[in-house]
Amino acid sequence: MLTTRTWHIQRLFFLMSARDHFLQDLRDEGFSVTFIRSANTEVGIQEFRNSFPEIEIEVAEPSSHQQYEQLKSAGLTFIPNDFFLTPRPLFAQWAGTQKNLVMENFYRAQRVRLDILMEGNPPVGGRWNFDADNRLPPPKGDHQWPAYLEHSRDQIDSEVLDDIKKRNLPTFGSEPDTTWGTTRAAALEQMDHFFENSFAEFGAYEDAMTTHTWAVNHSLLSPYLNIGLLHADEVIDAALARYDRGDIPIASAEGFIRQIIGWREYINGLYWHFGDHYRSENSLNATRPLLPLFEDSTKTQMHCVSTQVKDIEARAWVHHIPRLMVLSNLALITGTSPQEFLDWMRRAFIDSADWVMVPNVIGMSLHADGGQLATKPYASGGSYISKMGNFCKGCAFDPKKRIGADACPFTTLYWDFLDRNKERFSKNHRMGQQLAGLQRLSDLPELRERAKEVLDLLSRGEL
């Protein structure tokens, strides 16, 4: 597994060091621990059975289709996976009652079922969703962004990094620094840091992108949640306790809690509901190979893209809006293969997991499922990036221009994407306004030619 792909070294380090710290914690608590390093999962299971034939192996339900089938074939006994607040059968029951699998409907049902931010029947504040209050661009002028929390390294961390180098495992990206902790204690410290320093303005700047901070007010808890160093229950309890102190806006509290009990649970539920074949969906017939700029920040002059890829190279993470509206948006409007982009996302992000990335990339980001998850594609030109970020100032490209050498590639390719897919989107009522705008373009022939040039240059890493 460790040699089948080229992983971001910080992702590999994080997973391996967290594992070794967990094993040491078990030993310290008096458990007998057997660690086996094998060529693959099946071989490791057989080696354990050969050494301990009297032991029946029980495992938590795996979080990926592939591992589920591997362990099922090996005849292991499953116990329910408690990493999530919504058991898989319960999500399937909800999905079976829905005409459309709308996340907002699921989220409201979660609020009621879990009795979170409720005042009896009505929701706290009289509204289910305060998202309209949470879409501010980064403030102009000086702003005090939260300080980053740094995590110290110990002997286990050093040994893991040495092991990665000694085994010459295929990796990319900058070596681990102090951005990510690898222990349960570090995860709890990160959670406390967020609620004390970033929670209040989380909602307001949830969608903002700025070169002045790589984290904005985001919690940075997803890596810890996704490998089990934190549980959703305790994160929600901490969020509610902090909100109850009275100085956190409802828009921030509701927006954060929605990410945990709504979006996170919804994505995991859809991963199992759609099945393993979902990863192969490609309704837009997108076949372009992964662009060089995704693997090398020097391969583009687009300031917004190079900044995000540099951040990924540095720490294997950017927040959800750059993922969706910069990186995924570019993959969508260039017609990049969903499967190649999915593979890159799985390798590049510290918080990636199969259950996270498959629905997010195939459904939410690249519209490869034909609208099963999101009813319209999340495509945009340079105007959205200009509004929600500060990348355009000093960039080589103008987000207001569609054609010409200095036209923003996002703007050019957005209209070209609509043009290429106008027949496919013609029956989508949510795309009517965009397609009407396309029909009004007087420079469409010139735009098509410029789009061909842009796609060619991007494919060569020269734009």
Automatic annotation (TrEMBL):
Sections of the chain in a coiled coil: none
Annotated Pfam families: DPRP (PF04244)
Signal peptide as annotated in the record: none
InterPro entries the record matches: Crypto/Photolyase_FAD-like_sf, PhrB-like, Rossmann-like_a/b/a_fold, UV-DNA_repair_photolyase
Protein name: Unannotated protein
